[in-house]
Amino acid sequence: QVQLVESGGGLVQAGGSLRLSCAASERTFIRSDMAWFRQAPGKEREFVAGIYWNGGRTVYVDSVKGRFTISSDNAKNTVYLQMNSLKPEDTAVYYCNRDPPMSDYWGQGTQVTVSS
Fold first, then answer.
1. CA distances (Å), 100 to each of 66, 84, 93, 96, in order?
2. Which end of the chain has fewer CB atoms at under 10 Å, N or C?
3. In whole angstroms, what is the distance from residue 14 CA to residue 88 CA?
4. If you average pLDDT over residues 88-106, what whole number do you get?
5. Bridge partners for 114 per DSSP
6. What pLDDT shows up at residue 53?
């Protein structure tokens, strides 16, 4: 079964940047439609950014447009989320998965905490 491992989270001040990585255990897996999701304390998990058509199209939730960039590297079986101009409201656990997500592929996620 494919495993997705998220990394790159941490504690950062507002206005700072982080780059998240999502490594797949199986080659070619990330050539599927992939997305990043996040879940803040007390809230439901929400879509953040998606990459489709093997990288030909990207989609973002309005709250991160212009600040976050999703990309993929097929040679490394990895999907990235570059996050700039971070805000306290970006604080959450970030996960990657296919889009639409499949329950078997949720990983541990990576915690992002943005201090004001």
1. 23, 25, 18, 11
2. N
3. 6
4. 96
5. 12
6. 82
The tokens of 88 are what? 């306290």
As a whole number, mean pLDDT of residues 44-66 equals 95
Confidence of residue 24 (pLDDT cuts 50, 70, 90): very high
Q: What burial letters (b/e) apply to 78-90, b meaning 16+ CB within 10 Å?
A: bbbbebeebeeeb
Q: Are the beta carbons of 43 and 63 closer than 8 angstroms?
A: no
State how far the Cα of 61 lies from the Cα of 92, in Å rounded to an integer: 15
CA angle 112, 86, 39 (to 5 degrees): 40
pLDDT at 59 (0 to 100):
98
Distance CA 74, CA 7 (A): 17
Let me know the angle formed at the C-alpha of 19 by 11 and 17, rounded to the nearest 5 degrees: 55
* 95 neighbors 50 (Cβ within 8 angstroms): no
Mean of the pLDDT values across residues 9-21?
Answer: 98
Strands 18-24 and 34-39: unpaired
